Amino acid sequence: MERKFREHGEASIAAEDGLIVIRSRGPWNIEHVHAGDAVICNLVREFGGKPWQVLGVLHGDGLHTPDAFEAQTEAIRQHHALGRRGTALVLADVGGSAFFRSVFSRMYRAAGEAFEFFPDEQSARQWLAERSTHL
After folding, report:
1. Phi, psi for residue 124 in degrees, rounded to 5
2. Contact 94/59 with Cβ under 8 angstroms?
3. pTM of the entire predicted model
């Protein structure tokens, strides 16, 4: 019997010009990943098939349950068909943590996603803007 759990994690997801901005607090479970993916897939329709990128500003524990990690990796892979072309990550609370960087690095590499870590939102947005001219 499959059990459905209450969504664990918080997120604010918004669309800007060619950009999905995700402000999230972990840890996250699979229910949270599925809910966020549904919002993202709906928002990217505004881009009309044009390439887009993600700015992720993450707070709290940057951990996923194992099934949420796999679901997030698969969602990123599937977003490529919708025009996703890269992610800038700001690990707001644990930016210097090699452990959390390794967790996200494994996820994005497994998904085939171009990504970088940044100390603040301004530098992340600058990187995304520079990349957008080549998409």
Report:
1. -65, -45
2. no
3. 0.93
- Are β-strands 19-28 and 10-16 bridged in parallel, bridged antiparallel, or unpaired? antiparallel
Q: In what order do the strands lie in the sheet with 84-91?
A: 10-16, 19-28, 52-64, 84-91, 115-118
Please spell the DSSP secondary structure of 53-68, one letter per residue.
EEEEEEEEEEEE-HHH
Three-point CA angle 17, 75, 134, nearest 5°: 40
- For residue 113, which phi and psi values (nearest 5 degrees)? -100, 135
pLDDT in tens, 95-131: 778 999 999 999 999 999 999 999 999 999 999 999 9
Q: Which domains does the chain have, with CATH numbers?
A: 10-132 (3.30.750.24)
Q: Which residue has the tokens 């967790």?
A: 103
Q: Is the peptide bond before 51 cis (omega within 30 degrees of 0)?
A: no
Residue spans of beta strands (DSSP E) within 1-135:
10-16, 19-28, 52-64, 84-91, 115-118
In the chain, what's the furthest Cα-to-Cα distance? 49
